[in-house]
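Here is a protein:
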Amino acid sequence: MNVPLRWLRDYVPVEMPVAELIERLTLAGLEVSGFRLYGLPCPPGLKVKPEDISPVWDRDKIVTAQVLEVTKHPNADKLKLVKLEYGAAEPKVVVTGAPNIAVGDVGQKVILGLTGSVLFDGHATPKKLSELKPTMLRGVPSDSMVCSAFELGIHEDHDGIIILDADAPVGVPLQDYIGDIVISPDVLPNMARCLSMLGIAREVAALTSQTVTVPATPITAVGAPVSEAVRVEIDNPALCARYTARLIRNCTIRPAPELMRYRLQYAGMRPIKNLVDITNFVMLETGQPLHAFDYDVLVKRAGGQVPTIIVRAAKAGEKLVTLDEVERELKPDMLVIADTAGPIALAGIKGGLETQVTDDSKNILLESANFDFVSIRRTMKSLNLISDASTRFSKGIHPALVVQASDRACALMQTYGDGQVAPGIVDVYPAQPPVQVIDFPRAEIARVLGFAIDDAEVERVLTALEFQLESTATGWKVTVPQNRLDIQAGAADLIEELARISGYDRLPMTRLSAELPPQKGNPALEGEERVRDLLADAGLDEVIHYALTTPEYEALLGVTVGPYVELLNPLSAERRVMRQLLLPSLFEGLVRNLKHQDRVCLYEIGQVYHAVANEKLPAEKRRVAIALCGRRSVSAWDDPLGQKPAALDFFDLKGVIETLLHELHIPAATFRANREIAYLHPGRAAELVVAGTVIGTLGELHPTTAKRYDLTDRQVLVAELDLDALLAAVPVRYAYQPVPTFPAALRDMAVVVSESVTAEQVEAELRQAGGALLRDVRLFDVYQGSSIADGKKSLAYALTYQASDRTLSDKELDKTHQAIEAHLRKSLNASIRGKD
């Protein structure tokens, strides 16, 4: 929201320095993210971006002036000599080639720049500031100029000089006439009422103990009543709470007053013509969008009969060409304004091209209505069409503002468009919302905030915000103003308003009445954070994705899932259900990152959601997903021979998970091969088993699945684990052993077993046979070759023997080692390489 301060002062006095005003608004919840200067120097205490600075309009050198005479240039057909009065003893003659002033003109009010003025050079590319100096233009001396909006830094218009309103004063510094500071507060959804000048004015009034002045709306009704000229029907009051129509006859289409045009420009809107500009002006002033139809076009569409305005849902197959000249296909869930011939506008979003106000329009039908914000938001998303009106409707507006805005627009059209306002108003208002009255005990203030606020301050703040107060024995009965749709929580919302306006920075400092209670840890969150740290230490980058997806996207993984938790009002078709799997979300980040680098290692910790029969809320489960892709080595110099670096494989992924298990002190975790996991490569897939329960899967992504997720020709290693089950396996207490004081002895053993025997089985037998003396077992080689029989494989292990109370003798070592060999021969039908 762009707020020109000169415009704001029409409604509330703003006397404090701009820097202080910005700070007060920011602390009150309206953070000012920027501001722009038009002709004024930067206020003390503020820094402005270079792109938001216009030339400073020197008070003595850039002034308003009046044309006394325009004559031909003696030596140039396209140039003219303009004699100007500007408050000095003698008039000034300047040379101009502006196309919007002609020989013989007299009386126009313009802007005069005198020698020494600093303006944008209209002939320089890129644009730059330059000082105006005396010169000769085709033989005629010229030390001044009449200024365009471009040269003054107002906008990029090169098409002629600025022509001010006829009632503009002469000889006044331009700074005092249209110079302005425009602040840009960020309006959050809970403060949608501040998407208007009056909304901002109410906040400023409350912050500065001022009173808001609402403009009067004097209307002189003329002619036949509007009820004889138009009918209005609302098909579904739930989608349109109120619709009003006014008729303004015999309007004159011309530019709006210059001051109105500048206010619209400073606020970020493009001026068009007076009637359309008035509807935009009133929308910015009140926050209530309006729309003007060409009434004669409506009569023509009705076959010369009284037109009927119908607020209804669009019909299948209907189309509408909107004001941006785009033909849009409508859907049955879109709300439209229609007549008996078809749609004429997208309700609350954009008007139709056929019924727009043009230079030839004479009679105007003025719409002021209230539409359902959910419907507006849905249509905006569906059509990817956002307008100033839809932005306001989509955040919610009270139906009571409808008539206030309509009255204001009619008064302005009567004044600046010569319109004749028909008596009455067609007002269809099926169900007026109840007035909200809150019982507000004064004791509640101290209970919630921790300190009391004087009754006088309570009444000052709430009255300034247009709440109505009635004193009671214990506090007040507060009537909520119609523009405050955000007041929903009763007294708590009123207390927030008091704290916000009084200033959170002014809260008194008090000692605690007691010591802070001891804080209890949250094991679930602490465990999750530990896993996050361990994965980051392993070299993985964390990503966070939306928890919303589509069933079709998850189905690409080939996993059967249960019914989804569906959103009633999704932001888009791509975000309509809650995810049940984490890997598909992770693939989005993987694809995105692989466009920028060859090696990507990601993880995500998040929740998945499963619908539960006969339950309102879904079951939420925490999962951790991992994805690795690319080369194992990070730097090219890791491979001195210049060979293609090895790619990350299954064992790199397994190593990450083993590290995780080791650091979490999870005992008895095993990896079990599984060729039946649909989305993983057969033979390169496994399950993670902890305490006999499968808690996750890991492996290489199947090429077919990779192709579905735009990961073609990529070797992707993935894992998804049940985080809750993983953390549940972490022991509450760790069993620590003293550091051994006696030396260890190392022996190697190569065991030849059947191909069907896993290394895990062999290790288990080794540990069983080795007993307490066998401290560690490490597989360091797997071999199949000419010296090994078909169907067999050789597994080489490094065995560490150690006793806690003595140094082992060679005799003890030999005895234990031979016992292990004998056990393997018996239990696994193994042979010991080099001995059998």
